[in-house]
Model the fold of this input.
Amino acid sequence: MTKNLICIECPVSCILSVDIENCRVVKVKGNKCPKGEEYAKAEMENPVRILTSTVLSKGLSLKMVPVRTDKPIPKAKIQDAMNEIRKIRTEKSVHPGDIIIENFLGFGVNLVATREVSK
Amino acid sequence: MAAAISAFENGARDILLLERDQYLGGILNQCIHTGFGINYFKEVLTGPEYADRFIKKIKAIPEIEISLKSFVVKLTKNNVITYLKPGSLEEVKAKAIIMATGARERTREMVHIAGTRPSGIFSAGLAQKLINIEGLLPGKEVVIIGSGDIGLIMARRFVLEGAKVKGVIEIERRTRGLARNVVQCIEDFDIPFYLSHKVSKIHGKDRVEAVEVVRVNEGLNEVPDSKFKIECDTVLISVGLIPENELIEMAGVELDRKTNSPVSGELNKTSIPGLFVCGNAFKIYDIVDSVSKDSSLAGRRAVEHIAGQA
Done:
């Protein structure tokens, strides 16, 4: 089976042609860089996304602290992750990259701040 | 920031950066999604992270004076800038000026949508600010007019925050945004995407109640009997950006009436020598990496201009 995909790794948006046998990617064509092949494999076998959102702060100079997962998480778990993010209140000053929640939801990724927010 | 840093790196030693907001970084601060920096930093960054790279760099250069909460009210052809900052009105004369004033969003009025004027109609970027900076959700059932990147990104953002996006309506046959954003913002969340459709009317007395959608043919004319209604409480408008150049117009720079860009033979230059424009104010860019790259050139050009005057 061959499936067409649009790669989302960068703004070039390559159109990938993916050969699939027994639910496994055997060949990827149309990618202009190695990221396309990795993306196609992940997308077919275990689609993942980096999640970005905001966390409500308490006593900081900004009401919302923007956050991201430092690595992608399973696409199917995004709403679960959002439900968890909504419960978080953060009170500490942060720099971009500072961990808000370690091993977020047991995904093996950290939820990190993306902006400097002080008291 | 890219232009100021580049001006320093090319030899300028007395640089003033005016920012009207209380933070550096401009619109990047509300663009919390990823997709920035792949070309410039070879990394996938969010908007605030991308801005932070420049903020750290610029703060390490003492020759660049940063003035926040500084709102420029006047610019003359002799490169005299007047600006307001808390407690004072300042005037400075510069040997060269680089404008990095960005763009504004095109409005409902620019795309001619009939109907009433209820509350609940937002530009996509305003909705982005309300959610990502203010922590406020502008509505529960949303229709997005236009498929610019900000509109696509906001479709996903609304869904993540628990709202329902009932459709993205694009008059053209293709999306205006990047294909990757259609995949990761629209298809990932099964949001109805209506190409070759337009919103012909907005209904609602005090608050938006519904929009009327109609299919259009290749000539963008309405197809008879194709009208349908989508009930919603919120409408986002994402129909492109227009360069913000009010100040250079005040100084007498010739602008292209159609694009609102300065009429120019070369990147970053205007009809007034020593007055440069970079970023979205010069022309609308798709990605910020290109803005930083071209803005560095503006910094260099400004230094070259000063050297030529000496």
